[in-house]
């Protein structure tokens, strides 16, 4: 999450549902830590900022995002297993919850939503370049799927980021169900 | 939700789980806003009343409903994908949770519950006429499904509306499961 | 739920998650209401005791149960659709959570748990006789499934009733999954 | 859970979500009860320590674990039904949440995670020897699956144990979904 020039990043390898404000790192626009988590003083070994930090900064620097999330959602992972290099879905109302990042307009019901899928790597930081490449190639997207891993979603505020993350997850789940029933996820516009 | 002649409508494009009483619009019986959300004063740009407002008013004016809900439930959407112009189910106890809007009696276990499915449009307000048409054609129903979108459910009070919404959703989910196992959703009465 | 000779029964047609102690009926051992819900005074029309009351009393009178529950669980309903006149499962650890009502001993892992399935009727009270018949025919069971409706589960205390209800529901769900994957739900003992 | 030489064990046959600190047994390193649950004084019949106690002690004595959990998770049970003597999965990011118990390093994305599956017995304590045998044969694992029963997961602290338990469960669920869609759970490393 970004507030002005300050970026708040969660520590790595902790139970995310237990994070308190005191557990967050503050970084500047150049990805340098300017303030370590105050709660760290009580720990045996220091926190490490999230492995995803350079990927979050892709969203901040390339798209001016105000927030970026990463999930390992089973729906996202299964979608990357059932689709090739792109996740594609059309004619589902929830598509309208996703803004076209290029035009800043909401998608229409009969648009085809396309989300790029990049291959996973052994180290999360090694995804930085391929995520950036996908973001350049797909200027309309607010999400990059990572094969057998999960997805990154960003938005201009944490509220819009969270709302779009929920819409994407709903669409991934719906597409899996559609495939299970043999229904194509993209239909020609009528 | 309708209290006397006042209709309370949620704002559009917000996180519904965070809505407070101060965030609601009040409209009169002619769908004119008589009171804007007091909390709006704190916002950069004003709230907009829910896109569904004219659809909610179909339920208020045509059926004298006390409440109307709209959901994007995955069960509802999947049901519209697996069924044609009507969702039909019989011989499931939960059917008895749905009142026949014409006779005002609860459905019987061996009745066939029929819910009309209308096609979706790019703009929610453009559903107003086809929803009204379906309501005229299906006087027994308290629900209209919208293809690849969700459903509208109404009832004489918010309690009955919510209870029926839960029953419909249960029945949509059950029908999907039945189809997955190759079981017909309507069986001839014994 | 039964405490001494008093039976506490929920009202019919209400949102079960909102029930307060003041909303309960108290009945005597002869199924006569001895105390109406105090909260009823605030209502326009009086509460009606649960439609299931005579079915609950089957468990109290025939089995000396301390509590009896009724659910419309999707797992229970789907199990009645996929099985014939008996639900049967063996070799699942959770079976040990169910007591044999005849011997009062827990089932063994390699026992076959059998739950009778009775046909549904248009009126819940018309199930009373067939539930009683199934209880006589299956003295080991603490549960009767009702086709396309749900199940009744009882136990010597509300704690044991609730725990067994959870075990039964887990087993119904597991059996549905096993059938979905083409795995038989009963295997010959090794 | 182990704190110093004291092991805290839950009572058997109770509703786990209602356990209070006063309900726990304290055992010494030799599996002798040194302190019975104080809350027991209020009960008609004494608590019994969890049936799993000797299995938990396998983790404490053979692996120096700080905590050990047992679940009957439907995902774990279904995985044991769909796999033979080993659960195997590779190329899913969540594998990195599981530490290799031999090297103390996290697994890599392209490692194959292997979890032994032992056969169930009528009495839980009879699993003690076969669980120990599997732990010797699979020094990398932090989990033993028990056919049609569930799994045991341990870790150096309760935090790591819980986190790994969640990762294993996610992976069991993902594997079931992959099999449902006909996707192999292990892919050759690229």
CATH superfamily of the largest domain in chain A: Class II aldolase/adducin N-terminal domain
Sheet having the most strands of chain A? 5 strands, mixed
The rounded Rg of chain A comes to 17 Å
Question: What fraction of the residues of chain A are assigned to beta strands by DSSP?
Answer: 15-25%
Walk me through this protein's architecture:
The structure is a homotetramer of 190-residue chains. Chain A has 190 residues and is of the alpha+beta class. Chain A has two domains: 1-50, no CATH class; 51-190, L-fuculose-1-phosphate Aldolase. Helix content of chain A is 28%, strand content 21%. Chain A has four helices and nine strands. A five-stranded mixed sheet of chain A has the order 5-9-8-7-6, sandwiched between helices. In chain A, strands 1-2-3-4 form a four-stranded antiparallel sheet, with no helix packed on it. In chain A, helix 1 (53-63) packs parallel to helix 3 (128-137) and helix 2 (74-82) crosses helix 4 (158-180). At the A-B interface, helix 4 of A face helix 2 of B.
Brief summary:
The first copy, chain A, has 190 residues and is of the alpha+beta class. Chain A has helices at residues 53-63, 74-82, 128-137, 158-180, and strands at residues 2-3, 6-9, 25-27, 33-35, 67-71, 86-90, 112-118, 143-146, 150-155.
Give short descriptive properties of this protein.
five-stranded mixed beta sheet; L-fuculose-1-phosphate Aldolase; 4 helices; globular; alpha+beta; homotetramer; four-stranded antiparallel beta sheet
Secondary structure blueprint with pairings:
Four copies of one chain form a homotetramer.
Chain A: E1 2-3, E2 6-9, E3 25-27, E4 33-35, H1 53-63, E5 67-71, H2 74-82, E6 86-90, E7 112-118, H3 128-137, E8 143-146, E9 150-155, H4 158-180
Helix pairs in contact in A: 1-3, 2-4
């Amino acid at each position: 999450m970004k507030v002005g020039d300050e970026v708040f990043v969660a520590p790595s390898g902790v139970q995310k549902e237990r994070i308190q404000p005191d557990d967050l790192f503050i970084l500047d626009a150049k990805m340098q830590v300017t303030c370590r988590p105050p709660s760290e003083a009580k720990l045996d070994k220091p926190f490490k900022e999230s492995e995803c930090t350079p990927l979050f900064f892709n969203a901040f620097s390339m798209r001016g995002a105000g927030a970026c999330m990463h999930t390992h959602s089973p729906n996202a992972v299964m979608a990357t297993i059932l689709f090739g290099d792109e996740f594609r879905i059309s004619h589902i109302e929830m598509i309208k919850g996703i803004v076209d990042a290029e035009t800043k307009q909401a998608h229409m019901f009969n648009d085809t939503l396309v989300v790029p899928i990049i291959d996973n790597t052994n180290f999360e930081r090694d995804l930085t370049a391929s995520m950036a490449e996908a973001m350049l190639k797909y200027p309309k997207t607010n999400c990059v799927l990572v094969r057998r891993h999960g997805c990154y979603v960003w938005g201009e505020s944490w509220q819009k980021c969270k709302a779009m993350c929920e819409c994407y997850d709903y669409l991934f789940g719906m597409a899996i169900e559609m495939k299970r029933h043999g229904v194509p996820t993209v239909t020609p516009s009528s």
